[in-house]
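> tool_call: predict_assembly(chains=three)
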Amino acid sequence: MQAEAAGTPNLAHHFPSLEQQEHAARMGMWLFLSTEILLFTVLFTAYAVYRFLFPVGFEDASKLAHVAMGATNTVVLITSSLTVALAIYYARQGESRKTVALLAITIAFGAVFMVLKGFEYYHHFVEGQLPGKYYHFEGLQGPGVSMYFTLYFLMTGLHGIHVLIGMGVLAWVAARAARGDFSRSYSTPVELGGLYWHLVDLIWIFLFPLLYLL
Amino acid sequence: MAGPSHAHKEFGPVQYLLVWAVLLVLTAATVAVWKTHMSYGARITVALTIATAKAGLVALFFMHLWEHGGVNRLVMATSLLFVVLLIGLVLADNATRFQYANPPYSESWSEVPFRVVPPPMQDQSPPSIEAPAAPKRH
Amino acid sequence: MFPSPASEASYNSPNYLNAEKGVRSWLTTLDHKRIAVMYLGLVVAAFALGGFFAMLIRIELLTPGPTIMDAMTYNRMFTLHGVIMIFLFMIPAIPGVFGNFFLPLMLGAEDVAFPRINLFTVYLYLIGAAIAVWGMIQGGTDTGWTFYTPYSTTTVTTVAPVLLGAFILGMSSILTGVNFIVTIHTLRAPGLTWMRLPLFVWAIYATSIIQVLATPVLGMTLLLVAVEKAFGFGIFDPARGGDPILFQHLFWFYSHPAVYIMVLPAMAVVSEVVQAFARKNIFGYKAVAFSSLGIAFVGFFVWGHHLFTSGQSTFASGVFGVLSMFVGIFTAVKVFNWTATLYKGAIHVAAPFIYFLGFLYFLMFGGLTGIALSTVSLDVHWQDTYFVVAHFHFIMVGATIMAFLAGLHYWWPKMFGRMYSERWALAAAVLVILGFNATFIPQFLLGNMGMPRRYYSYPEQFWPLNVASTAGASLLAFGFIIVLVYLIVSLVSGRVAGPNPWGSRGYEWNTPSPPNVLNFPETPIITRGAHEYQDAPAGEVTHAS
């Protein structure tokens, strides 16, 4: 236990090996991801209930969502998942420069996502398609319509916050990679950051059809 | 490499690009389905199926559950089980309730028998006693 | 096997209390044992605060009509009492104190998997608690700890700080759960297979699963209430198409498993105490271990029994009622096995054992009234009466707090190296058990007679039983204070305890008292299950001193 620790500066004293530590870190991150899934499930439950109760209102209201922008954002996030997966791959190979570059591209994609989202939000705001009591779009009124927009803003808003957090996490990991913290034997933070980013993508994969297409 | 624990050949850029391509195809399929005129139930089923397939690809390959799964697969599966549980049982309640225990003018309400409009909760105005406006439907 | 604990000379460093001095060393510690002791101080303070508000409630209920406060203040009192007791004591106490202290020791590990996250949970607890308590004193939320809509979204009192505080406390709970699960999976000593794990570890594992899966739902739901109150988005407002009962579904999806977060660690402690004080291996190890997982799993299926009278469909109520009865089966298995462990055991009657007996009795009656309440046709009459109040206090105070005290007395010598006064401990235990009965049995009767809960006044016919309940509460409070006093006194002048004053064969007793900073000088190799008394080699088990 002591001998291995002397040669591996990243090994914490209470873990018998670096491999064990990496396994533990990964499990911890997966458990944390499951908490994030349960967090979003609350909103998915509300969505399911209110779509069930107001099928016509939701169907009409979802036609006001911008499918082209939503589809573009889906492609953006899926591609960002690719780039972060590649970043992890190159981190494992010990190629820090490629890792930093790919992480930077991923963050850029995240920024593109947020910008497109911003356009959508702005348009909805201008049209008066806002949540709850602020809804005043004359072009579509009826039971369930304002509830659709409540859920739209809550779900995409919470997701957007997670995109921003993910961008921050990846930026920190990229800074560490640029500093040379990672090597062929130790690149766990890159993997953990990537896992978080993939979760952000996963949530959007469900949000897109539910909010834009149905 | 990351140590001797990885018995499988680790995925490389080619495999990731392949998965990415499939994901794009599935995304296109989702949008294409939206443009067709399927029934409501069919559209929901297809959309959710495709979304699940995409999510599965991301989880298995980008998130490495295929390579070194084990307990992490169990964590993911368990959380999905509870997602289904929460949504399913709550929907079952709303679906089988006495109709007026659901929110006003929701699908389960048939002909509204009374004439009082419940006031919005945030302001203090008393309830009006006119007939409620018929909700717009297509 | 385990290195000999008796000789401190086999260690090269002092025990965890003496290792570093100064407040700063405590505030920045990564040692799970110090973190546990900090949790102990915090939860005891929270318990005292919550108990103070309980006494105010009981004093108000001494007479029909206003006694010392008006209705609004009374609503704030029971909200304060509920929020503090549940979020600041019941949820974090046993995992935070005994889980943190003993999980690594029972696994043969040096620390938990993520020590820095462990320290972070203490600070999250502090911050969340401070915000919640400050918020309640400030604007004084009066919604009850259940925050039901539409009242919580329209009340003039300030709810947001309490919601934020509860959210932060939830994060502390989640991170503790993640830490424990990973620790149990990855830091077991060589030879420690799953089937040799102490039962304490199994139950903490089940608790952690619930913490991870259920708490995020509460966090998001409380956030939605705050958002609706602040911005009027109307997600629970019928005028906007919202469903107030949806809040109840989401709230209780967490809060019912939450009661298992509270009671499973109590069962964890009890499994250890009963084996040590009957000096006998548990009857039916696998049944007890798997029933912990069963409670964790099935406990997620039953939340609708809190919504029987709220407008939930009769179909759903029927389903939830039946499922609620199933979850009782696992507890029954445990009660049977604990009792069977006593049979032909060498029982040592000391304070932990008295608390165990109290636990068993209260768990049985609390649990049986729970099964009665899960019968929809009966619950229609008992819902929102003192019958429900008495039921959950039997489990939460009667079972869980008895188990907490049992664990505290059992492990006190290990944690602090001192024995408390056994005479005072026995007297206090009897006083606590009697006081508890005097407080809550009248409440079963009151509830059955129809007295509603959360009312500051009541009709004259309920007066005598309320007086009886308040008298009992005073006895109970007195008992708790005595416990606090002699335990603190023991730190200063108690008899120095050896490594194993009870003669227990649990793994954690193979250390000096208090344990060394590094827990074990080298990783132990486990070759037996815990609590295998019948095959103890001669001389290993020191008899109770």
